[in-house]
Specification:
By secondary structure, the chain is of the alpha+beta class. 50% of the residues lie in helices and 17% in strands. It has 7 helices and 4 strands, in the order H-H-H-E-H-E-E-H-H-E-H. The N and C termini lie far apart (58 Å). Bound molecules: heme C.
Length: 208
Amino acid sequence: MRSKTVVTVSIGISLILLAFSGCGESVPKDEEVAAVTRHIAGDFMDELKTELLTALEDTVAGTVGAIYVCAEKAPEISARYSSLPGITVKRTSKRLRNPNNAPDEYEMKTLEILESRPAFGSQDHYEWEITDGQKKFRFVRAINTSSVCLKCHGNPEKMEDEVKATIAEKYENDQATGFMLEDLRGILTVSLEWPEGKAVFDSISAGL
Ligand code: HEC
């Protein structure tokens, strides 16, 4: 009778262990997830920069015409990347133009870390974040200003009047002017939830 109980209990424990080992598929190394999220960040930035530079080259619409790229295209591209299962892509900053882009706690902490680094130091930061049992890989890349950004984020005295007026009309509490060349304008963040983002991780890492 006693041995029967022992057998039943040990079978029960084995089943539980089996169940856990099945769903606890090994989590890839930090460097591997960083490579995948860095790749997503690179694609996002390339796409947005191409859109912005193409719009700025349009001599008729000019800089005012390019405002729509940042105002509409950027959120649209973020939403498309964020529709991948387990993935969220976002641009944020301490000095915001659009309050919808406000940083969360982790992003605020990372903005401070990147601010304290030398301008030409490492521009990436990543780590696993675990909140309420949810495991999430957070990759952050610094976004520094180049001369083209200053048309809409630089010294207001040097910005075109029409650009200033259009921005003021759309964004009442704009804090995103007064940046200088190479300043930390903000960050691009890519989050990959685990295991929800596993399929995306697998398909991108297979091509790297
Ligand atoms: C044609 C004007 C224009 C140019 C040029 C421009 N931006 Fe913006 N930027 C905007 C607008 C408008 C927004 C607000 C977008 C929104 O509503 O989400 C914005 C938002 C941002 C944000 C998101 C955070 C926030 O403040 O809401 C970042 C980061 C950013 N810009 C960085 C850059 C960088 C880096 C460059 C240069 C490569 C650049 N921008 C060039 C107009 C511009």
